[in-house]
Structures are given as C-alpha cells and as structure tokens.
Amino acid sequence: MLNFFQHVPLSALVVLVLLIWRGVRACHDRVLPVSRAILLPLVVLVLSVWNMPAMMREPVLAACWLLAAGASFAICQMLHYPTALMYEAGSRCVRVPGSPLVLVLMLVLYCAHFAEAAFNTIHTATGLPMVGRLALMLVYGSAGGIFLARLLGLIRAVAGWRPSRIEG
Asked: Nearest Cα to 110, choosing from 41, 11, 12?
C-alpha cells in the first residue's frame, strides 16, 4: 500500500478525496442554488465532448461512446431519472433528493481515468489496446448519458418557474 502512495501524484489523491466528499454529500437530500445544481452534470458533459476530436480519429470509439450515451440516456428516461426534483422560484434553488448514484459515477469515472493514465504511463510505446479504449468509451458514454439526463431534468424543473414536482 505504501508503494501505491509513493507513486501516485498528490494531486490525484486530493481529487479522489474531493470526489468522495462530494459524492457522500450527494447521498443526502439537499437544497442547491440552480447554478450549483447544474454545474456537475454540465462539467462532465463538457469533459466528455472535449474528448470527441480524439475519438473521431477512430470511428469505432466514437460509435461506442454514442451508443453507450444514447442507451444510458434512454434508460434514464424510461426510469424517469432524476425524480422528485423541485424548483423553488422564490429562492432560485432546487431541492435535489439524495442518491448514491452520483458517488458511484464519480468514482467509476475517476477509476477509469486513473487506470487509463496508469496504463499509458507504463506502456508508453503501445498505449492502451483497442479493447481497453472501447471499455473506456462504454464507461465515459454511459456516464455522459446519465449526466445528460440529470441536466435535462434540472432544466425541466427550472423552466417551469414555479414550484413543481418533475417526474423524469
């Protein structure tokens, strides 16, 4: 275990601790300003789209990402995710129900990115094989679809400009 901490940059451990802290907080019901509620899904989507030019060099990776994102988004829509969002126009805040899904997604994305970086550092000449890159695209695409569903749910809740219960 000590060997692990000696070879991992301190910044990576700080990011991990911050993600765990944010994820644990997301497990509990909370009231957030609209800007903060929209920030996490928006950042994840921007980071996903940021990788698109690299994926376009290999169409099979882009197709894998798009299929995973589309499938996870469709599943979220069928399951009416996110549920029970309530917008309070007076305070311009959103009541967000707690869910461990945010913690799980952030940790999965962190682990996937960490594994990719570690593999590419160890195997600098060859890089990650195609199977590994396809697996990463499945992970990144699935998370992108879920965060897109969350972002659209928040936008729907805010668009009403009156207290409302949004299912979906």
From this structure: 12
Residue 152, amino acid: L
Q: Lowest mean pLDDT of 83-87, 97-101, 107-111, name the range.
A: 83-87
- 130: nearest Cα among 118, 114, 119: 119
* Phi then psi dihedrals of residue 54, to 5 deg: -65, -35
Q: If you compute the radius of gyration of the chain from its CA atoms, what whole number of angstroms results?
A: 18
Per-residue pLDDT of 109-164, as tens digits, reads 999 988 888 888 888 888 888 899 899 999 999 999 999 998 998 888 888 644 44
Across 106-124, b (16+ Cβ under 10 Å) vs e yields beebbebbeebeebeeeee
Give the tokens for residue 97.
């129900």
Beta partners for residue 86, in sequence order: 95, 165
Name the 3-class secondary structure at 165: strand
Nearest to 143 by CA among 55, 44, 31, 46: 44
Higher pLDDT, residue 74 or 51: 74
Measured in degrees and rounded to the nearest 5, phi and psi for residue 167 equal: -110, 100
